[in-house]
């Protein structure tokens, strides 16, 4: 299993200058890799392996590239080809994509060392801090707020400077599967220990067993962001005052992002500890953001990030996390399957075929649960009618406020959660 730990970094002025220089040289190398690839014949595009073999020649021709650690330089080549691969995958899924662009200094803000060229010294310095050595850059102090797992292998280390001016160090780790808890056997899953989730509009999520989680209130943060952006627009571009205000705007944005991420961490952790199987819609996030006026709320939701966290924690806690096709979960009746068109403002599900009535999002969550069973090759229990699983009266739903999630770190539901492994 692969995962990562991230730490705030505090390089000295001398090391920060060296790091910024290396970032710029890596940016130049990335742009040269792109140029070499773009200007090669269409029927003879170089592979990552072939461009790695060109590195010694490029170092002789442009000595500045020789300043880089060899593994870090190879990681920069890999970075271009990873971006290229992601672009192809998006194109295959029907997205309109262009070409990879040149990276400006503002866009290229990290350098990665894999396999070698780095060391971690957690014995040096006072408690709560450690040092990481990046070859040809120097030692960087980090806030070591949590130790790396003893059974984990460090695969690579990344040094990054955020738009706020803050530095961070990230460790990519690999843990043996023997240390990961086993997921429950499929034949033990039923509606009592499984849940379907609808990623909603009026609520953050709606579960198939009748829980709704409110949106995180970020209105004050967005009002602050609007004020700071107006101030930025009045500064002379490129001036010292402009740069100071740009960092202020970046810090406000970072605060919003961190609040959303913290909220998602708390919800996803609760879900994988509470249930043996969690089913969620595989949503077209880009299409959602482009489709209507709810773009900002959906951006706050960061659905893809939410699902990624859920999958990662499912492996960590031994919980099945399965994505199911999203198409038709809102239209289809959870009881009889007949589809009924519903405009977005219609919040109730009322089936003209079987008469089943409930909340629109609750109906969708139940459809997600049923599709999840199907994805795992399990049959829906005939002895479990939909009405017994899902409260049909909205008064029977359990509403969970965002404040409760933020303050308690859970949905505060009186059920025995799975123990931490």
From TrEMBL:
Q: Which residues form the Cas12f1-like TNB domain?
A: 303-368
Transmembrane helix keyword on record? no
Record's keyword terms, sorted: DNA recombination, DNA-binding, Transposition
Q: Could you tell me which InterPro entries the record lists for this protein?
A: Cas12f1-like_TNB, RNA-guided_DNA_endo/Transpos, Transposase
Provide the GO MF annotations for this entry: DNA binding
Q: Which residues form the Probable transposase IS891/IS1136/IS1341 domain?
A: 188-289
Q: Which residues form a coiled coil?
A: none
Which residues lie in Basic and acidic residues bias regions? Answer: 235-246
Its GO biological process annotations read: DNA recombination; transposition
Query: Domain of life of the organism in this record?
Result: Archaea
Renumbered to this chain, region (Disordered) spans 229-248
What the record says about family reads:
In the N-terminal section; belongs to the transposase 2 family.
| UniProt protein name | IS1341-type transposase ISNma22
Q: What is the lineage of its organism?
A: Archaea, Methanobacteriati, Methanobacteriota, Stenosarchaea group, Halobacteria
């Amino acid at each position: 299993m692969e995962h990562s730990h991230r730490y705030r970094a505090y390089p000295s002025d001398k090391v920060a200058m060296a790091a910024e220089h290396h970032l710029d040289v890596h940016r130049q190398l990335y742009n040269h890799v792109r140029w070499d690839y773009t200007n090669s014949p269409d029927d003879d595009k170089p592979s990552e392996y072939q461009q790695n073999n060109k590195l010694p020649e490029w170092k002789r021709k442009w000595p500045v590239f020789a300043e880089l650690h060899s593994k870090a330089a190879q990681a920069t080549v890999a970075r271009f080809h990873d971006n290229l691969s992601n672009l192809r995958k998006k194109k295959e899924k029907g997205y309109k994509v262009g070409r990879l662009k040149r990276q400006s200094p503002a866009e290229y803000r990290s350098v990665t060392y894999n396999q070698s060229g780095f060391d971690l010294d957690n014995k040096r310095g006072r408690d709560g801090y450690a040092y990481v050595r990046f070859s040809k850059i120097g030692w960087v102090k980090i806030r070591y707020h949590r130790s790396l797992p003893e059974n984990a292998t460090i695969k690579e280390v990344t040094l990054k400077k955020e738009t706020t001016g803050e530095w961070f160090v990230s460790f990519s780790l690999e843990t043996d599967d023997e240390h990961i808890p086993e997921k429950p056997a499929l034949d033990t899953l039923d509606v009592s220990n499984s849940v379907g989730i609808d990623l909603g509009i009026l609520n953050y999520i709606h579960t198939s067993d009748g829980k709704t989680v409110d949106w995180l209130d970020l209105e004050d943060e967005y009002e602050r962001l609007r004020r700071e952006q107006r101030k930025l627009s009045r500064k002379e571009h490129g001036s010292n005052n402009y740069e100071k205000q740009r960092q202020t705007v970046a810090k406000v944005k970072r605060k919003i992002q961190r609040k959303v991420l913290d909220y998602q961490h708390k919800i996803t952790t609760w879900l994988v500890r509470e249930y043996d199987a969690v089913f969620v819609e595989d949503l077209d996030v880009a299409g959602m953001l482009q489709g209507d006026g709810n773009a900002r709320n959906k951006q706050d939701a960061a659905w893809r990030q939410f699902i990624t966290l859920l999958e990662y924690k499912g492996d960590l806690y031994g919980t099945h996390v399965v994505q199911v096709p999203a198409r038709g979960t809102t239209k289809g009746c959870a009881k009889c399957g007949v589809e009924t068109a519903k405009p977005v403002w219609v919040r109730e599900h009322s089936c003209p075929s079987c008469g089943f009535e409930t909340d629109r999002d609750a109906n969708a969550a139940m459809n997600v649960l049923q599709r999840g069973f199907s994805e795992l090759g399990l049959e829906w229990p005939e002895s479990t009618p939909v009405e017994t699983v899902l409260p049909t009266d909205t008064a029977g739903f359990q509403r969970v406020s965002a404040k409760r999630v933020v303050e308690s770190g859970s949905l505060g539901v009186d059920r025995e959660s799975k123990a931490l492994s």
